[in-house]
From TrEMBL:
GO MF annotation: an example: ATP binding
Gene3D superfamilies: Winged helix-like DNA-binding domain superfamily/Winged helix DNA-binding domain (1.10.10.10)
SUPFAM superfamilies tied to this protein: C-terminal effector domain of the bipartite response regulators, P-loop containing nucleoside triphosphate hydrolases
UniProt name for this protein: Regulatory protein, luxR family
Residue ranges that the Swiss-Prot or TrEMBL entry lists as coiled coil: none
Lineage: superkingdom: Bacteria
SMART domains: HTH_LUXR
């Protein structure tokens, strides 16, 4: 305002605005325009641009053409009469083409004419000339502006120009001739805290939180234009300036900001652009010498360019050079183009590899290069694979291997090795893809011993994903003429036994264990792996007694070494064996040793295998909560491999939704045993199926288990579940027949858990004292088992059975059951501290009432219950009314708790 007032008194002046890119000089010029217009001044504006520097008088024309067009007739006549011939070159098509290198001025008549125009316009009001980006003005306009800058006295004219410091053009003689006449220089800079908050308020219409304001200042480095673009991007996305949006602000890379940066980069001198590109492509590896090498600049040139880019606000030089905003990286790639970007990636990769930088830094650049790069690139990528594997980054390792495949011919032997490595790397996260890579690799390997080594090198999960093709390949290598050594033969045989899906193969494996020399098997890693899966087969089929299996497995435990290549599969098979034998504690220390070893090897598939084994062991110990937490956790190796025995164990838990969530993916889904357990889940969980249908599902489950040779009742007590449902249907004879078969099989096997579970089911089905006696036997058996959850269930059942005839003992058992369950991480519902005995026996629930109440407690509707029991809905209503009266409850909502945990086995 002061300058305009001075101009009104014929004391014209030049004001200069200067500051880094985006610091607000253009906005400040707009504010000056608005202010001058409000003061009644004539405002003329021009924007200089690099693309228009070759147009003579280009800036001057932007200023004067609107001026002359807007003159009144008298004023226009005065101008024409005074200097018509002199100013004609300004508006001619070719101007007068002044020489930028020459000190010869634009003709004096032209200079005088430009001043005369302003004097005519300024007769009645002040004139304000606004010139943005003065450094890019054409030569002729600069000479005229320089002339005016030193001859403003006596004119009602204010010139306000903005200048970007640091650029070579800003230091030219012609620009200096203009700015030397400045009466005042204003330096724009970073926003204050108040400025940041004010801009947030302007963009969002509300104040931002403290965290959001701090994030805005950090993300923009307080540069006004950058902050405005970041805030506008968030506002357009519908976000508010709160703490949740702060993270978005820090990571935002708006397209408008990228385009603005790209326009700045295109205006840079070639050396500055090369320096910026080198800095961007080098990333974290950037240091001054490397940047200069990639950019092709010597030390002096680097120093000068660094200063320029710092002044422009594009880089921060301390402690090491870096770009001021992530969007600059995008702008660099947009500016240099695809071909130059590929050349830079190659040059950076070669330089980093030559200087010994981390292999993954080199590989990151090779990933962006589609063309083959030779042996050095292959070495770098293989080193990067090992580095990524060591830190558990299997996805990165897989990307490096896929890139390496681009550099190998389709039928090369080396390609087979790469495909093998890729199969191993992706096996933990995508077994099906891994199996395809394995099958692609096998024909490319040079000989049968090499193929055998490849087959045992990949995790067994890959074999499960393509069982027929891979097992056929394995069997073809077990001929007498294959040349495969004994060690690899035994490991191949172990895989085949592990994947056996028919009764004959499992039974033959158990029989073979009895025929083998155990000491010979324990002597080598391959033998130990084979013996472990043979023991597992013997346990699954109950082909040997529990005691004999435990004795042989215990001897094998002593021989297992952390150096065994197949240690994960060996230990996992032993865990399943000891779990079936109700001795999970026996394998605890060996499991810890194996887990430590596979983590040291950074083997994701082996880690996943042992995590699954650990979850199974914990579940077999009754540590339900800990086991489920382990299964639910996110692991760096990928999801835990939930196998059939683990699913069978989860089927005994109260929350069957947990089982559904943990059912395995496509690798296990087609396994016959998993088909059986899906049938079981529909039978024992909440379902609209009739009781008869549920029984049939459990019988189908049993037949399926029998077909694959998994006949040990310790695997899954399907007969017990079916018998309990038959009991609800009133078929006591069929129920007891199944239970006697189950108990006899459990006794033959000899595992305490299997025996105790069968005894407990007998206790549910047998009436009166016989049921109590059988449950007491189960309690005695399971008190010597390692599975505390099964003990808690049995204590709860006995508490329920005794609550009428022995209420004091029932109360003690209820308290014990609750305490035992809590140690397992499970909360038992419905147990009463002091159950009150019913006054008369006839007040107890009748069998029909008990069946209806149990089904209602599972959430079934009256109509569904009626259909399952083949009675009328009215009969169901009568039974439930009687049940509510006898139990002293208000309705169905509290029925489950009132019935207690007795209802659990009758789901």
């Amino acid at each position: 305002m002061h300058a305009i007032a001075e101009a009104a008194a014929k004391r014209g002046s030049l004001l200069l605005l200067t500051g880094p890119c985006g610091s607000g000089t253009t906005s400040l010029l707009q504010a000056v325009r608005d202010l001058a217009t409000s003061q009644g001044a004539a405002v003329l504006g021009a924007v200089a641009a690099t693309a228009e520097r070759d147009f003579p008088f280009g800036v001057l024309r932007q200023l004067y053409e609107p001026l002359i067009a807007g003159l009144a007739d008298d004023d226009r006549a005065a101008v024409v009469a005074g200097v018509a011939d002199f100013v004609r070159p300004v508006f001619a098509a070719d101007g007068c083409n002044a020489d930028a290198e020459s000190l010869a001025p634009v003709p004096h008549a032209v200079l005088h004419g430009t001043r005369h125009l302003l004097s005519v316009v300024g007769r009645h009001r002040p004139v304000v000339l606004l010139v943005d980006d003065l450094q890019w003005a054409d030569v002729e306009s600069l000479r005229c502006l320089g002339y005016l800058a030193h001859r403003l006295a006596g004119l009602r004219v204010v010139i306000v120009a903005s200048l970007r410091p640091g650029l070579p053009e800003s230091a030219s003689d012609l620009v200096r001739a203009v700015v030397d006449g400045a009466a005042e220089v204003l330096h724009t800079g970073p926003l204050s805290d108040g400025g940041v908050r004010a801009m947030i308020r302007v963009v969002f219409g509300e104040d931002g939180t403290e965290r959001f304001a701090v994030a805005g200042a950090a993300a923009s480095r307080r540069t006004p234009l950058v902050l405005r673009m970041l805030l506008s991007d968030l506002a357009q996305s519908g976000l508010r300036p709160d703490d949740d949006a702060a993270e978005h602000l820090l990571s935002a890379r708006p397209r408008a900001l990228r385009s603005w940066y790209a326009s700045l980069l295109r205006a840079l001198p070639s050396g500055a652009l090369a320096y910026t590109a080198a800095l961007s492509f080098l990333g974290d590896a950037a240091d001054a010498p490397l940047i200069g090498e990639i950019a092709g600049l010597d030390h002096v040139e680097c120093v000068l360019v660094t200063r320029t880019l710092q002044v422009l606000g594009l880089i921060v030089a301390e402690p090491t050079p870096r770009l001021t905003h992530p969007a600059l990286h995008d702008a660099v790639r947009e500016t240099v183009g695809v071909a130059e970007a590929e050349r830079l990636h190659i040059e950076v990769a070669q330089t980093l590899h030559r200087l010994g930088h981390p292999a993954e830094q080199v590989a990151a650049h090779l990933l962006a290069v589609p063309s083959p790069q030779g042996a050095w690139a292959m070495d770098a990528l293989r080193d990067a694979v090992r580095a990524a594997t060591r830190r558990g980054a299997t996805a990165d390792a897989a990307r490096y291997l896929r890139r390496a495949l681009l550099d190998t011919p389709v039928h090369a032997e080396q390609r087979g090795g790469l495909l093998m490595e890729l199969a191993v790397v992706v096996s933990a996260t995508d077994p099906e893809v891994a199996s395809r890579h394995l099958l692609q690799a096998l024909p490319l390997l040079p000989d049968e011993p090499g193929r055998a080594e490849a087959l045992v090198e990949v995790p067994v999960v890959c074999w499960r994903a393509a069982p027929e093709e891979i097992t056929d390949a394995a069997r073809s290598l077990l001929t007498d003429t294959s040349g495969v050594d004994v060690e690899h033969r035994m490991r191949l045989e172990a895989r085949l036994v592990l994947l056996a899906e028919d009764r004959r193969a499992v039974v033959d494996a158990a029989r073979r264990l009895g025929e083998e020399d155990h000491a010979r098997l324990r002597a080598t890693p391959g033998g130990r792996e084979l013996m472990a899966v043979l023991l597992r087969a013997a346990a699954l089929s109950a082909g040997m007694s529990c005691a004999d299996v435990v004795a042989a497995a215990s001897d094998l435990l002593e021989a297992v070494s952390p150096e065994d290549p197949g240690i994960a599969d060996t230990v996992a098979a032993l865990v399943e064996t000891f779990v079936l034998a109700d001795r999970p504690d026996a394998v605890d220390s060996v499991l810890d040793m194996a887990a430590h070893e596979v983590h040291r090897r950074a083997d994701p598939s082996a880690i996943a295998t042992l995590e699954s084994a650990a979850a199974l062991m914990l579940l077999a110990q009754g540590l339900v909560g800990t086991s489920l937490e382990l299964l639910s956790e996110e692991h760096s190796c990928g999801p835990v491999d939930v196998g059939p025995l683990l699913v069978a164990g989860i089927l005994t838990l109260p929350d069957l939704e947990q089982t559904r969530r943990l059912l395995p993916g496509p690798v296990w889904s087609e396994h016959p045993v998993m088909t059986a357990f899906r049938q079981a889940l529909r039978a024992v969980g909440e379902s609209d199926d009739s009781l008869a249908t549920r029984v049939q599902r459990l019988l189908d489950c049993g037949r399926c288990l029998d077909r694959v040779g998994w006949t040990n009742p310790a695997v899954f007590p399907w007969r017990s579940h079916a018998a309990e449902l038959l009991h609800l249907l009133g078929d006591q004879t069929a129920a007891l027949e199944l239970l006697h078969t189950e108990l006899a099989a459990a006794v033959r096997w000899g595992g305490r858990q299997a025996i105790g579970r069968a005894q407990r089911s007998v206790g549910l089905v047998e009436p009166g004292a016989a049921g109590v006696h059988a449950t007491r036997e189960a309690l005695d058996t399971l008190s010597r088992s390692e599975n505390r959850w099964e003990l808690a269930r049995t204590e709860a059942q006995l508490s329920f059975l005794l609550r009428d005839c022995a209420p004091s003992e029932s109360a003690r058992l209820a308290a014990r059951a609750r305490a035992t369950a809590e140690t397992c991480g499970v909360r038992l519902q419905g147990l009463q501290d002091a159950p009150v005995p019913l006054e008369r026996p006839q007040d107890g629930l009748t069998p029909a009432e008990l069946r209806v109440a149990t089904l209602a407690a599972t959430g079934l509707t009256n109509q569904t219950i009626a259909e399952q029991l083949d009675v009328s809905s009215r009969a169901v209503e009568k039974h439930l009314t009687s049940v509510y009266r006898k139990l002293g409850v208000s309705g169905r909502a509290v029925l489950r708790d009132a019935l207690g945990t007795w209802a659990e086995p009758h789901r």
